[in-house]
Amino acid sequence: MKYLTEFRDGAIAQRIAAEIRQITTRPWAIMEVCGGQTHSILRNGIDQLLPPEIELIHGPGCPVCVTPLEMIDKALAIAARPEVIFCSFGDMLRVPGTDRDLFRVKSEGGDVRVVYSPLDAVALARKHPDRQVVFFGIGFETTAPANAMAVHLAKKEGLKNFSMLVSHVLVPPAIDAIMRSPTNRVQAFLAAGHVCSVMGFWQYPPLASQHAVPIVITGFEPLDVLEGIRCTVRQLESGEARVENAYARVVTFDGNQPAQALLEEVFAVTDRAWRGIGVIPKSGWRLSDAYADYDAEHRFDVRDIRTVESPKCRAGEVLQGSIKPTDCGAFGSECTPRTPLGATMVSSEGACAAYFNYGRVVQLERVSA
């Protein structure tokens, strides 16, 4: 616990917040890209420690939330097939599709199983050679190496009954798309430390230079987030726009190169649809040609799925940072974690779930003294 508690010191948090207030001379809008950082900010009341001039915009950093509705409906169609064991992480089971979710499919007889690693799904494929085992592979660069390893092992072992429904997305193209948007208000980014622990941050300097935007890599504990904000405000106030690593205990410039080599072998870059945002060019991964036989989307021929979003859900605007969750008329009434209209309310990293669970009554005591 020592290595956690030392990044949750309330007195140090107060000092960093005081310095941020002291150096802030004008309004600034900073986007945290990661949903884990959003939850840390709200759970610990970090936004309440900041001066009113600092606005934190919650970005599209929740992997469950940005998985497109079309992909959810494809998962539902595959999971309902009698020959399939459909494997997923638990936070995908309540994500609403057009007319149901994976829990509903399970209640109707589908063999839907929660696993804790994609390698668990590979083990199921070994154990049940007479069944088709499908793993729902979603997420940012953080979860991609384990998913790549699962497909790599399945091919190496000749497991013909294993496949993966892939919906991976990439952070740098999303930052580029946000900065190119005509409605963009973001002036700086807090980049996700766990993504950069895998990929490094060699992709970020061109973005900072091209868009003249500070990008500060930081972690998820209260002091990590506050330090990231302090570094960001310093750059904004001095007119700088560069990449700064405030999470050096975990992140290096080059990242995890063996993991990157595996990703390059198993996946290929592709255009990817983001739920509530639309298609961002070259913003995702699909299985490479060498692993195409393990693509569940093609194996089960679910390419022509038609979807219908809830007209009441404004999750897309939340993901783009255009509105706060509480600006949605359905928030907390028609849309709750038990009756979600969109993924941002049900995901453990969703901004709507964070606002619902923590409200705006979080006090300073949330940051442990």
Keywords:
6-stranded mixed sheet; disordered C terminus; Rossmann fold; 5-stranded parallel sheet; alpha/beta; 369 residues
What is the strand and helix layout of this fold?
Blueprint: H1 2-5, H2 10-23, E1 28-32, H3 35-43, H4 46-49, E2 54-58, H5 63-66, H6 69-79, E3 84-88, H7 102-107, E4 111-114, H8 118-127, E5 132-139, H9 144-157, E6 162-169, H10 171-180, E7 188-192, H11 193-199, H12 204-211, E8 215-218, H13 222-238, E9 243-245, H14 257-266, E10 267-274, E11 278-287, H15 296-299, H16 315-319, H17 343-346, H18 351-358
Parallel strand pairs: 1-2, 1-7, 3-4, 3-5, 5-6, 7-8, 8-9
Antiparallel strand pairs: 6-11, 10-11
The residue-averaged pLDDT reads 91
Estimated helix fraction: 40-55%
Level-1 CATH class name of the domain at 68-170 and 255-299? Alpha Beta
Specify the CATH architecture of the domain at 68-170 and 255-299. 3-Layer(aba) Sandwich
CATH homologous superfamily placement of the domain at 68-170 and 255-299: HypD, alpha/beta domain 2
**DSSP, total strands:** 11
Q: Calculate Rg over CA atoms.
A: 21 Å
The gross shape turns out to be globular
Largest sheet: 6 strands, mixed
- Helix/strand order, N-terminal first: HHEHHEHHEHEHEHEHEHHEHEHEEHHHH
Give an account of the 3D structure.
The protein is 40% helix and 18% strand. It is an alpha/beta fold and 369 residues long. It has a domain at 68-170 and 255-299: Rossmann fold (3-Layer(aba) Sandwich), CATH 3.40.50. The chain has a six-stranded mixed β-sheet, with helices on both faces. It has a five-stranded parallel β-sheet with strand order 2-1-7-8-9. Helix 3 packs parallel to helix 18 (351-358) and helix 9 crosses helix 14 (257-266). The radius of gyration is 21 Å and the shape is globular. The model is unreliable at 360-369 (pLDDT under 50).
